[in-house]
What we know:
Keywords: Signal. Belongs to the PC-esterase family. TBL subfamily. It is built from 9 helices and 11 strands. The chain is α/β, with parallel strands linked by helices and about 280 residues long.
Amino acid sequence: MLSPCASMAKPKLHLLSFLLCTILLSFFHCTFSLINPEDETSWIDMETEDINVVQSLFFNGFPCYVQLQDFETSIEFFWAPLLVELKKGAGNKRILHLDLIEENARCWKGVDVLVFDSAHWWTHSGQTRSWDYYMEGNSIITNMNPMVACQKGLSTWARWVDLNLDPRRTRVIFRSMSPRHNRLNGRKCYKQRKPLQFFSHIHVPEPLVVLKGVLKRMRFPVYLQDITTMTAFRRDGHPSVYSKAMSEERQKGTGLSSDCSHWCLPGVPDIWNEMLSTLI
């Protein structure tokens, strides 16, 4: 398998951008520990001589842009969980523009490898969703099937990629949906210490079905990094109730507040990154 260091040593790889949400932020973070595996904290303190970091910026205490001088490579995290534009409107209402993407996409040109992800935020509803209403052109839409909205947003992204990127210059990778284990049918992650052994049937999340349909209609050759089924077995890889220090009494609770969406590091995201390094 091609190591991350070997893939970054290729002279044409100068800028690698991750366009992800909070769930996949760990996917970005573990890149640094893979670059320098002998120092498990090097991706946090950014002071290791081995990777010779000359510039870094931080997002919520973690690196979001790093320039690696030894590899002549820059790696960055770009916050765009819905890809299309989310803006404030009248009355401080949050508007999700399903047909606008330029403000986000202005940062995507001239990059050697773009790694996209967009799934979980489209499935949010009620108070957890990030918008108050949709807009398409001049039309305001208060209610829409979230997967229809997802299809429209991804189609806007696909049109931009087809029109603005050159496959001879830029490689585009779209990482599929990270599965959650917070359902009440026995697949919750609370107190789970072993992976699932089998599935009675393979469930394909609807956002992945939508994504595959959009990718099939594109002219630009986007590579789908499909980690969904593989990761669905790893119910044991979530922070669960251990995402923060807590009392022993609370750890013995019901598990209803378990974090069964995000992932521990080291852990599952390292496998995704091994796959990514091979693709690069």
